[in-house]
């Protein structure tokens, strides 16, 4: 109650990170609002450049925050913009430290606490400090895998009762397609020709793309190996090193880099691939694994962090520290049509267990619980 009138409570969702995996996560939460009748109102706080992402979401109230991400200005303005909201959900660790009302934060992973994978500099120190502050400021923490939850408990000393694991989902646009049609589309739209292996993600150190390149070079040394390697991911900071590595390994003619594609075309790229390979040392979740499985593409991924949890028994695993083991895993699947079909069938079934509808429903229930607390 406010005064003598019953006023619907408001939940604000910080939707300023509408790009890459964070963008998928935030947009799917917001789209879920369109499909449900909720006992509270939802406010999306975003930037002008992302208004088109929210244009068809008629149930949302949209507010703009024009300030650089991770800036003092954003820290100052976000509490003001959300001051009349009963609960704020920060979808990333950079929550507003001075906000006086309840905050829930999603911490997807703790890669910034791992010295091996993140360059030391101002961004690294900021991320470490904000992770510790976010863990103590928030009334509750959401994470995306049991692996990440265990890391939060161990590294930040958070009681398990303050953490809820809510798995990411797979959108319906990722579906099994006729491979001939998929090949035709990728040939026309992004100039790819089969056969090809696929990697989807950034070029950051923890993604272990270097090992993938070396394993691919090993395989290319065999005359009968005809596949090219396709890398989908927009990471300009890593492009120069990547091109130099291609050159040194002698595979430049056999590697294609696609910085960015629409979700529609990405689905066709997945469906046309003989394999998706995810060689990461660390993943909080590993969404490309499920997206590829939903498209009927066999998956080869590292036996590390959250990936066995997400992939279950529907992928071929390898040791991410061994280039030879990665090359053997690729060769094992490519040389066995029976194994390909087994992984394809198991992958389709595995992907069906992860839905954005269930992910959104569990978020909304958590919001409601804390609104009533």
- Please state the second-level CATH architecture of the largest domain: 3-Layer(aba) Sandwich
CATH topology of the largest domain: Rossmann fold
Number of strands: 13
Q: What's the mean pLDDT score?
A: 91
Instruction: Categorize the overall geometry.
Output: globular
In the CATH hierarchy, what is the class of the largest domain?
Answer: Alpha Beta
Number of domains: 2
Number of helices: 13
The side-by-side strand order for the widest beta sheet comes to 3-2-1-4-5-6-7
CATH superfamily assignment of the largest domain?
A: Glycogen Phosphorylase B
Please outline what is shown here.
The chain is of the alpha/beta class and 373 residues long.
Notes on the structure:
Helices cover 42% and strands 15% of the residues. With 373 residues, it is an alpha/beta fold. It has two domains: 10-169 and 355-372, Rossmann fold (3-Layer(aba) Sandwich), CATH 3.40.50.2000; 179-351, Glycogen Phosphorylase B (Rossmann fold, 3-Layer(aba) Sandwich). The strands form two sheets. It has a seven-stranded parallel beta sheet with strand order 3-2-1-4-5-6-7, with helices on both faces. A six-stranded parallel beta sheet has the order 10-9-8-11-12-13, sandwiched between helices. The protein is globular.
């Amino acid at each position: 109650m406010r005064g003598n009138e019953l006023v619907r409570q408001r939940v604000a969702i910080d939707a300023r990170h509408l790009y890459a995996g964070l963008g998928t996560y935030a947009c799917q939460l917001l789209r879920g609002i369109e499909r449900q009748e909720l006992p509270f109102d939802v406010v999306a706080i975003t930037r002008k450049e992302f208004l088109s992402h929210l244009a068809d979401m008629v149930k949302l109230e949209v507010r703009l925050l024009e300030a650089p991400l991770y800036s003092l200005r954003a820290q100052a303005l976000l509490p003001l913009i959300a001051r009349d909201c009963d609960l704020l959900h920060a979808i990333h660790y950079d929550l507003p430290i001075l906000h006086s009302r309840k905050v829930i934060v999603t911490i997807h992973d703790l890669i910034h606490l791992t010295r091996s994978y993140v360059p030391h500099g101002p961004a690294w120190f900021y991320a470490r400090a904000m992770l510790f502050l976010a863990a103590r400021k928030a009334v509750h923490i959401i994470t995306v895998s049991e692996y990440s939850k265990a890391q939060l408990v161990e590294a930040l000393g958070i009681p398990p009762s303050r953490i809820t694991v809510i798995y990411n989902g797979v959108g319906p646009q990722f579906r099994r397609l006729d491979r001939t049609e998929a090949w035709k589309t990728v040939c026309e739209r992004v100039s790819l020709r089969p056969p090809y292996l696929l990697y989807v993600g950034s070029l950051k150190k923890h993604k272990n793309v270097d090992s993938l390149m070396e394993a691919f070079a090993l395989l290319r040394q065999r005359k009968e190996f005809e596949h090219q390697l396709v890398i989908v991911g927009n990471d300009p900071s890593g492009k120069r090193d990547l091109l130099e590595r291609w050159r040194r390994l002698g595979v430049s003619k056999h590697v294609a880099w696609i910085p960015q594609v629409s979700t529609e075309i990405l689905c066709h790229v997945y469906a046309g691939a003989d394999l998706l390979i995810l060689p990461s040392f660390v993943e909080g979740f590993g969404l490309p694994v499920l997206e590829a499985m939903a498209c009927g593409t066999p998956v080869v991924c590292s036996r590390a962090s959250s990936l066995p949890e997400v992939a279950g028994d529907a992928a071929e695993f390898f040791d991410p520290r061994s280039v030879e083991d990665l090359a053997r895993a690729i060769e094992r699947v490519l040389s066995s049509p029976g194994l390909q079909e087994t992984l394809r069938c198991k992958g389709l079934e595995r992907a069906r267990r992860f839905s954005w509808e269930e992910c959104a429903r569990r978020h909304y229930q958590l919001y409601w619980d804390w609104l009533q607390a």
